[in-house]
Amino acid sequence: MRGALVSESTVVAQAIEHALAHVDRVAFTKTYWDQNEFICLPRWLPSSIVARMVAEVERVRPAVHRNYIPRHKKGGSVSYYTLLEQAPTILALYRAPAFIRFLSDLSGQALQACPDNDPHSCALYFYTEPGDHIGFHFDTSYYKGGRYTVLIGLIERSSSRLVCQLFKGDPRGRPIVEHRLATHPGTLVAFNGDKLWHAITPLGDNEERVSLTLEYVTNPSMSPLKRLYSNLKDSFAYFGLKTVFTGRARPAVGG
Predict the structure, then answer these.
(1) By the 8 A CB rule, do 155 and 118 touch?
(2) What is the 3-state secondary structure (H, E, C) of 75-94?
(3) How far apart are CA 80 and CA 87, in angstroms?
(4) Confidence class of residue 79 from pLDDT cuts 50, 70 and 90?
(5) CB 79 within 8 Å of CB 230
(6) Residue 148 to residue 172: CA distance in whole angstroms
(7) What's the burial of 55, exposed, middle or buried (CB within 10 Å: 0-12/13-18/19+)?
(8) At residue 33, what are phi and psi to the nearest 5 degrees?
(9) Rounded Cα gap, residues 182 and 163, in angstroms
(10) What's the pLDDT score for residue 110?
């Protein structure tokens, strides 16, 4: 796997650098800040990379862990630990230096990947059964610094939508602006996790939606109490107790 990841890292790095070369960074950054640290780039990721990632979605599908929390969420998840072993393209994207530099420039923060004991750092989310959804929430950071989210659409065969409410709780009193987005393959959504109030609307019959979420932090430190709380949340809401408490702290691979 290490050799495969090194090779994949080169392919992904070149594709990301090519895609970034076509981004108007000045305009993109202005929009990000005008929208309270939120941006969407439809179908931005190159189709060749999306195809590799979708193949990895199928590879890890047997590892999906499903959860149901009444009145909040229903769906399936695959954690960073599984992706680390079976999804070299996804991991290469997550750790691509040019991609992290781009996000750092966008946010005005020195971002870095989450520690290897965070199962939520790089994960797939499967909406495959009628009614699968997640209610409104912030991507609250339990780290000592901020946490920034990148969402990438991979499979979109649904009427389900990512609903984003900008300016909720804004100290400047700006009115809420709502966006309802179809996350088509390759679509990139980036935002400050503490500022975007967002949800996924319920899946319909015979529909499917799969997305990738990447988390980056400004400070990888977390207190033991908050780490325990974060692990318990991830256990019951996403990946299961066995994955979270026996799969963590595996060595990073390549990249």
Answers:
(1) no
(2) EEEECHHHHHHHCHHHHHHH
(3) 9
(4) very high
(5) no
(6) 21
(7) exposed
(8) -75, -35
(9) 9
(10) 97
Query: In the chain, what percentage of residues exceed pLDDT 70?
Result: 94
- With b for 16 or more beta-carbon neighbours within 10 A and e for fewer, the 146-184 pattern comes to bbbbbbbbbbbebebbbebbbbbeeeeeeeeeebebebe
Residue 251 confidence (pLDDT) = 37
Higher pLDDT, 83 or 245: 83
- Interior angle at CA 242, CA 219 and CA 67, nearest 5: 85
Q: Which amino acid is at 156?
A: E
> For 129, which DSSP code?
S
Extended strands (E) in the chain = 38-41, 65-69, 73-78, 112-113, 122-127, 133-137, 147-157, 162-166, 177-181, 188-192, 197-200, 208-217
Range 148-163 average pLDDT: 98
DSSP strand pairing (65-69 vs 73-78): antiparallel
Size of the chain in residues: 255
The single residue listed with the structure tokens 């009614």 is 131
